[in-house]
Amino acid sequence: MCILEITVGSWVVMGNLKEKQLNSSKTDGSSAESGALGSSMVIELPSIMTVNDLALLIGIDSIEAIKYFMRLGEMLAINDVIDYDLAASAAESFGFTVKPITTTGGQIDFIVDAN
Fold this sequence. Notes:
Strand order of the largest sheet: 1-2
Strand content: 15-25%
Largest sheet: 2 strands, antiparallel
Radius of gyration: 15 Å
Number of helices: 4
């Protein structure tokens, strides 16, 4: 069992990469562009994120994410900020099921670096 842990900004996403890869290759034989890593994987997306954060989160090269956005007519760079709807459409096109990050409780803690 191989656990995949990706840190995107302050979010940490964990998943069983090897199991997802094996299951997706046995069932549908899909390629990486159609979501071989996440054919049935559910991910939670924040309301805003960068193109690079999205690419890291869904396990693709940032260039592939930029190409997807260019096909939609969006000229974005790796550090451009995108909203939930745009990120969700990209993740879904790569085979992921997407839902927004929900918070429980009303308190948000911030860590401030004293340096």
